[in-house]
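Box 3.1 A note on notation
Throughout this textbook, protein chains are presented in two layers. The first layer is the amino acid sequence; the second is a token string describing backbone geometry. Keep the layers aligned when reading.
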Amino acid sequence: MARVHPSALVDPRARLADDVDVGPFTVVGAGVTIGAGTTVGPHAVIAGTTTIGERNRSFPFVSIGLVSQDRKHAGEPVTTTIGDDNVIREYVSIHAGTAGDRADTRISRTCWIMWTEKR
């Protein structure tokens, strides 16, 4: 059974592999699927129709699968798909796709994703 910190909120309809680790104050929505060996850090939000593969590691304050920030998004069904063996560092946001662009945001495998401040 997945290890979910007592302060995390995981929707009972979310599908987590048996060895997933969910950190404190994290929110996991109903349409989320998280694969084996994945660790979700504290204060993360994973929502929407989101599939996260195996052996991924996310750090504090990531935001994955929320509605697109594209102003053309008009409520169409959209998804987020993340492959295996990725590292998603602090403060990274990965938003769902838009209907005009395949409706899926897709991250491949073995990626290292970091937030940087634009100056």
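The chain has a mean pLDDT of 94. The CA atoms of residues 96 and 112 lie 19 Å apart.
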